[in-house]
Amino acid sequence: MAWTGVCGNCKENFAIELFHNGFGDTSYAYCDSCGKVAVLSGWSKQWPKGVKCTQAEITSEMEPYLKPCECGGEFTKGNAPRCPKCNLALSADEAAEYLERQAPGTKKGWRWQRNWSGIYCAVVNGQKVMDNFAT
After folding, report:
1. Contact (Cβ atoms closer than 8 angstroms) between residue 5 and residue 124
2. Do 19 and 121 touch, CB atoms closer than 8 A?
3. For 97-132, what is each residue's pLDDT tens digit?
4. Which of 19, 29, 60, 95 is most buried by its number of CB atoms within 10 A?
């Protein structure tokens, strides 16, 4: 389910979806240039031996095993989703307001993790790639 996010810099609205990497047994990384997210299945036959599936952001050991983003950037640890208009990194703290306001689980105590490295990853305007392993 896509919700609506808003950039703290330019005030642009965008669609945002959260993915729970624990449920999917996945890890993820954001592109350092455009903010697209690569979601990587821990069950993929392409998963490199000796690299842990974190069920959160990738470890730096995974970086050499990923293809570059189609924008020319790299999927690396420590990045964030970006605003589709101004391309600035989105604030995980500011995201708490719009995510918690729209999430049904908030009434039952769910709270946003307030970071871009935990169990949830965010997909902005559908910008994701699955199993982006280098061959």
Report:
1. yes
2. yes
3. 999 999 999 999 999 999 999 999 999 999 999 999
4. 29
